[in-house]
Specification:
The protein is an alpha+beta fold and about 400 residues long. Among the domains are: about 110 residues, conserved putative lor/sdh protein from methanococcus maripaludis s2 fold (Beta Barrel), CATH 2.40.420.20; about 70 residues, Helix Hairpins (Orthogonal Bundle); about 80 residues, Efflux pump adaptor protein, beta barrel domain (Elongation Factor Tu (Ef-tu), domain 3). The protein has 5 helices and 23 strands. β19 and β20 form a beta hairpin. α2 runs antiparallel to α3. The chain starts with a helix and ends with a helix. The N terminus and C terminus are likely disordered.
Length: about 400
């Protein structure tokens, strides 16, 4: 019977240890410490701006006309072809003019009838004038004959005008080039029925050439008529210069950009339709001293852009909002928020927190170079020690 009394203290110890374990399991563990991250840093400095705005453009004729028939009808023949050079007076296309010829014949017949009526009225007036001289008729009767003659003459002139108009309508069935140039577009084919004024061909007139390019809304205010531009021809090693001749007053309804026309200068004019690259000098900031950062240093913080600035005293980082002006190649140009001399984290910005402790990352090559002299000194020391031990043994 004394055995149960001897086991009771041991049992009580187990109970106490189990309760302690339960209490320890229910308690909340301490939060882990924030790791010290290695980051790349760069010192903010001032560098010259390298890039310039370059726009793609196209060489076009200064005057480009869309030609169409002045009357409607069915196209029976089209002599003009795309890219063909034509001269003034050359036939470009023809309509079926049968109806216009018939209308001209009808107008010609009306002229003949009006001519006959006018001649008859003239003969009557001459005969009644002789009778008036002999006092066989009154003056009122002669005036009526004179009025009839005037009316017949007016009808004849009206018929002649209608004949001339119908003759023009028949002539308008032939489309003729009014200037010399190059056909740049064909917009109608034989067999097609077109109305008056419908474009059939587009002709670029011979003469001066323009370069046409488009600029966005935020850059159009800096481009003024008369400003200089540099032009680079894409298909040839050719550099040209020009002046802005015209800036559109409204944006293109599709692209929402503003077309700009530049007058080409010099004798080496690229062919029509050639692709060129235009650099407006008014938009060039090459050589200006600016602060530039790699895009890897930027991060989005709400509605603003920010960077991590390193505090070397405490080796912590803090968030600094910045204003990005534009891009220079693969770098962002900073307009505000930084001063030269600051140290900015350039990589790993998305894993940092405010006031987080960091270390400056070093390349493995640099660490190896620093470690190599130390290992060499150790080898020399070991060798010297080995030689000393050998001498003592002897």
């Amino acid at each position: 019977m004394p055995i149960p009394h001897a086991l009771s203290p041991l049992r009580a110890g187990f109970v106490i240890v189990g309760a302690a374990l339960v209490v320890a399991g229910c308690s909340r563990p301490a939060p882990p410490e924030e790791p010290v991250r290695a980051v790349r840093v760069m010192t903010v400095g001032v560098d010259p701006f390298q890039s310039s705005y370059e726009f793609s453009g196209e060489v076009r004729a200064r005057v480009e006309s869309r030609l169409g028939f002045r009357v409607g009808g069915k196209i029976v023949r089209r002599q003009a072809e795309l890219g063909q050079r034509v001269k003034a007076g050359q036939v470009l296309a023809q309509l079926d003019a049968q109806d216009y010829r018939l209308a001209a014949d009808a107008a010609r017949a009306q002229v003949a009838a009006a001519q006959t009526n006018r001649d008859l009225a003239a003969a009557d007036f001459k005969r009644f004038a002789a009778l008036k001289d002999q006092n066989f008729i009154s003056g009122a009767e002669l005036e009526r004959r004179e009025t009839a003659l005037k009316a017949a003459q007016a009808q004849l002139e009206q018929a002649q005008a209608q004949l001339a108009a119908q003759g023009n309508q028949a002539a308008y069935a032939t489309l003729v080039a009014d200037v010399s140039g190059v056909i740049t577009a064909v917009e109608a084919e034989p067999g097609q029925v077109v109305s008056a004024g419908t474009p059939v061909v587009r002709i670029a007139q011979d003469g001066p050439r323009d370069v046409v390019f488009s600029v966005p809304e935020d850059k159009v205010a800096a481009i003024r008529p008369g400003s200089d531009v540099d032009i680079r021809v894409w298909a040839a090693a050719l550099q040209l210069s020009g002046k802005v001749r015209e800036v559109a007053a409204s944006a293109d309804p599709v692209t929402r950009t503003y077309p700009v026309k530049v007058a080409l200068e010099g004798a080496d004019t690229p062919p029509l339709g050639a692709t060129v690259y235009v650099t407006p000098k008014s938009l060039s900031h090459a050589g200006a001293q600016v602060i530039k950062l790699p895009t890897s240093a930027l991060r989005q913080e709400g509605q603003s852009t920010a960077v991590w600035v390193l505090d070397k005293a405490s080796m912590t980082v803090r968030s600094q909002p910045v204003q990005v002006a534009t891009a220079d190649g693969n770098q962002a140009v900073i307009a505000g928020g930084l001063q030269p001399g600051m140290q900015v984290v350039s990589a790993g910005v998305h894993v940092l927190q405010p006031n987080q402790k960091v270390t400056i990352y070093q390349e493995k090559g640099a660490v190896a170079q620093e470690a190599r002299p130390q290992s060499a000194s150790k080898n020399v020391a070991n060798t010297a020690q080995a030689e000393t031990t050998s001498t003592v043994a002897k």
